[in-house]
Write a structure and sequence with these properties.
By secondary structure, the chain is of the alpha/beta class. Helix content is 37%, strand content 18%. The protein is built from ten helices and nine strands. It has a six-stranded parallel sheet, with helices on both faces.
């Protein structure tokens, strides 16, 4: 099956990859759904919503600083690197990710659509202007936007917020044009990202799912490879490289 996927991918000019939490879990990225220590006393909407931010700005920033500190210790795995190598082999490539950890950027993939934002970036809570992502936030003295004076917040899509219209529109266009669509490490239940594989499939793309377990998408997939992306993807990409070099 892996040889067949590689053969198809090597002949495709438009490749799209969608990644979810599964690929990051292989790097040891915590999900933060089961919060530790003092954070266990807070509901998700208290730490990841506009209302929670306005009511408990200092606490929210303490939580995100803690998360950022944990994330600094995490590195891209072989799955991330394999995707970067696949991009180098593809004349038209798009990576769509639901992850906010920035590991694809660290792995040097270029064409990335981060649907849910990036935990390392900051933006204005009012005008949404992106500010210096290296800015260190003091929770007791939140900096404000130089443009409008709004408080600075993490550039993450919170509960109750809509995805960036331009990003999701581009993701849909890319999915419609895909010749092969890889769905990697995602449960395929969080919309609108969950609809992208189906959009690609309906437009004629070969749908490949790589996951440690079956999902709601598995029955639609042309190929389902069960296992870790860090083990499966490098093997596929190596075969693609060999076919491209012939």
């Amino acid at each position: 099956m892996i040889k067949k996927i590689a053969e198809i991918a090597s002949n495709c000019k438009r490749i799209v990859v969608l990644t979810g939490a599964g690929i990051s879990a292989e790097s040891g990225v915590p999900t933060f759904r089961g919060k530790d220590g003092v954070w266990a006393n807070f509901k998700p909407e208290e730490l990841a919503s506009v209302a929670g931010f306005m009511e408990n700005t200092e606490i929210v920033w303490e939580w995100y600083n803690w998360r950022r500190e944990l994330m600094e210790k995490v590195k891209p795995n072989k799955g991330h690197i394999a995707i970067t190598n696949l991009e180098k082999l593809s004349p038209n490539f798009s990576l769509i990710t639901q992850n906010v950890d920035g590991l694809h950027t660290i792995a040097e993939t270029q064409n990335i659509l981060e649907l849910h934002g990036n935990i390392s970036r900051n933006k204005c809570s009012v005008c949404h202007l992106i500010v210096d992502e290296k800015l260190v936030i003091d929770p007791s003295n939140i900096p404000t936007c130089k443009k409008c004076g709004g408080k600075i917040r993490p550039d993450i899509v919170w509960f109750g917020e809509m995805l960036d219209e331009q990003l999701i529109s581009q993701a849909m266009v890319d999915s419609e044009q895909a010749e092969i669509f890889f769905c990697i490490g995602t449960s395929a239940v969080v919309h609108p990202a969950a609809s992208l594989p189906s959009i690609a499939k309906q437009r004629g793309a070969v749908l490949v799912e790589i996951n440690t377990e079956e999902t709601v998408l598995t029955s639609q997939a042309d190929y389902f490879v069960q296992g870790k992306s860090g083990e499966i993807l490098p093997e596929i990409i190596q075969l693609v490289q060999e076919k491209k070099s012939i």
